[in-house]
Amino acid sequence: MDVTGRIVRAVLLSLVAAGLTVLVLPSAANARAASTQPGTLRLQTVPPLRGVVVKVDGQVARSDAKGRIQVRVRNFVDLDKRLIVPETEISADRKVVFDRFRGDVDAGVRGKVVELGVRTSRLVSWSFIDRFGKAVPPDRVTAMRLRSNTGEIHDLSGPDVARPRWVAESRTQQGPQGLVSKQLYYVVDSAMVDGTSVVNRAGQKFVPWEQQAWVVQLLFFRVSFTATDMFFTRQVGDGIELTRADGDVQRLPFGRDGTALVPDLPRGTYTITVFGGGVSFGRPVSISKDQVVTLTVISVADLALVTLAVLVVAVGLVLLGRPHLLTRLRRTGTARNRARPRPKHRRRLPTRRAGARPRQVRAEEDRPLAGARGGVMLLLLVAALAGTLLPSGAARADVGHRQDGPTPAAAPVPVLAYYYIWFNPTSWNRAKIDYPLLGRYSSDDVEIMRRHVRMAKSAGINGFLVSWKHTPQLDERLTKLVEVAREENFRLGIVYQGLDFSRTPLAFDTVRTDLSFFATRYATDPVFDIFGRPLVVWTGSDRFTAEQIKATVGSVRGKLLVLGNAKSLEDIESSQGVLDGQAYYWSSVDPVAGASGPKLAEMSRAVHQRGGLWIAPVTPGFDARLVGGKREVPRREGDTLRASFAAARLSQPDAIGVISWNEFSENTHIEPSERFGAADINVLADLLGVRVDVDVPVDSSEPGDGAHWGLNAWGALLATGAAVVLLPLGVVFQRRRSPARTRRDRPSGTGPVDGVVGR
Q1: How far apart are CA 131 and CA 110, in angstroms?
Q2: Closest CA to 594 of 654, 646, 531, 636
Q3: What does DSSP say about strands 692-694 and 178-183: parallel, antiparallel, or unpaired?
Q4: How many helices (H) and strands (E) does the chain have?
């Protein structure tokens, strides 16, 4: 039975094998037969591009708009050896070249779509602008280096800097799902002007796939040069010689104001020498921002002063060390007096009493006194010299002390100034044309906060609207400012920064969380009691609908007064009462033109009709061109501020918002500064009926320069040191050289003195 079973199984296996052979062999034969037969090859370009060319068996085909290609072939045997993808310019600014296939092209015999990967190149061009957006002629740039993220480098020089160039745009790579195209990007490593690179390495990025006309920004700065006398701090010289990094020397004469202005000086290090007016040594100056460079010149007056000082010291040493020379000078003067005609009636000289010392001895005893008198005179001369060398004024910024007088008139509505606490020491290196008189401070400095508060109070300002959002650094700074305001009886409000650096609104959850944090921490703090509840102005609220605003701030409106920053009547109407009012931050308007008054009045009526608070903007001027602005509103020596204040008051505001206390990037600040001094804070104080005593520094040169003070202090120390050294030397020499004093100190009876005593 077992034998029979084995026979049956063997027969069955033979039958199955035979069946499989019957099925498979025809299929393989059919496949081999199909490979030798004509057919249609289907391709898909990666990336999908129109116009990619393939050539095979005398046939030419191009891809359609989706990158699909169909081409007839006589067979599929060794097709990869016959298929050609030539380099093709598919448009005026794009080329493609074959990169790779995915899999075997012969597989197309089964109707499968074969992926065709191509690399692309793009014709790009570029132009140059400065920091203000002004075009820079390409011939100013002598060389430039471009580098791709794959390491490809383009070194351009001469005419090539201005010519369009083909650069690699994309390449393909194998991915899990097939071929993928990867876009390339380029950075500018250097752009050479006058021998120095005027770009930050890899600071500007360009993607050829997205942008073919590149705009490269070059770092040119506005620099003013002036020269002063070493000791007397007056302007001297005829101009400067500026030696560039490439060795080129340029002579720039001083204008009538004693300065030489270069509006577009490339970033770099230069050697500056003053010509005319005295002796000047080359000084290396690194230019990386808009600045004023003050150079020092040793003038003829300085040389004469130094020579006089040396002579005074030399003569003083000689006279103090040799008293007999003083005696000779005195006798010479006496002889000259005797030679003059004498009056007929002379006073009779007293007769020497018996036992009195001879005149000769008295003269010798008087020598120490004469030496002391000479030393005192020399000390006075040196002190006068030190006074000449000292600076003409101390650079103080004690601002904001109210004068004694009648109590200032109270403003009918609160006056609030927009205040910024984001300053770090490095903040002043970017987009600034003016700097505070208090120095380039950090907003962490409590003493700076205190001085700001006191200055603002003295000018009639009731509080600050503090720019804030919930970050560890700004939270800490706000805490410090709250303590200062509490000690100084000053009020605060908040401007919640609901936009990021690129002016994109923050997420609703972020705004809701930040405002809840603020309400929990400060809702009952008296420092924020301006209108009964803490005031918060939400920057960016105009980007949202009424429903979105209500969902975001609805939970805190019972604790806070949340105002929007509507810029038009439409924005006010769209909020539909879901906010507690509006504070219009309008700093770029020119109120002198007269267009601001009617608009503010209309917005005020619209806000008040809905029962809201209206904070009207007041600004002294505007210039944000260094941060992307397009216009400038001049200050007009306070007239702009006066016109803006008048327009704001006519809108019947619930508060006046002064833009700003310290926004130095847009140059709306009223904080006393190097460029404008205390002019605008004084104008505001006058408008509010307040008298302010502002002591503006005489020398408002750039903080940290210290050239004038260092040189003058050196001269003062030199003169003072000479006085300190010379006076003791005079005493020592006098003790050594005075024979009268030496002999007078001897005991009596030790011997005759010049044969007179003991006669």
Answers
A1: 61
A2: 646
A3: unpaired
A4: 16, 35
Could you give the number of structural domains in the chain?
A: 3
DSSP per residue, 269-322: EEEEEEESSSB---EEEEE-SSEEEEEEEB-HHHHHHHHHHHHHHHHHHHHHH-
What is the pTM (predicted TM-score) of this model?
0.46
What's the confidence (pLDDT) of residue 730?
A: 53
pLDDT at 714 over 70: no
Residue-wise over 356-393: b if at least 16 C-beta within 10 A, else e? Answer: eeeeebeebeebbebbeebbeebbebbeebbeebbbee
Rounded to whole angstroms, the Cα distance separating 644 from 646 reads 5
In terms of C-beta density within 10 A (0-12 exposed, 13-18 middle, 19 or more buried), how is residue 81 classed?
exposed
Residue 282: CB atoms within 10 A of its CB come to 13
Decide: 665 and 627 in contact? Cβ < 8 Å: yes
According to DSSP, residue 435 is labeled -
Cα 583 from Cα 196, distance rounded (Å): 47
For residue 245, what are the domain limits?
A: 220-298
Q: What are phi and psi of 533, to 5 degrees?
A: -125, 155
**pLDDT of amino acid 540:** 87
pLDDT above 90 for 631: no
Omega before residue 343 within 30° of 0, cis: no
Query: Is residue 455 domain-shared with residue 577, that is, in the same domain?
Result: yes
> What are the residues whose beta carbons fall under 8 Å from the beta carbon of 515, sequence distance 6 or more?
496, 536, 552, 553, 556, 560, 562
More confident residue, 161 or 235: 161
**Domain annotation covers residue 361:** no
- Select from 217, 240, 275 the last residue of a domain: 217
Residue whose structure tokens are 């015999």:
109
pLDDT in tens, 543-563: 888 888 888 888 898 899 999
Question: Is residue 10 domain-resident?
Answer: no
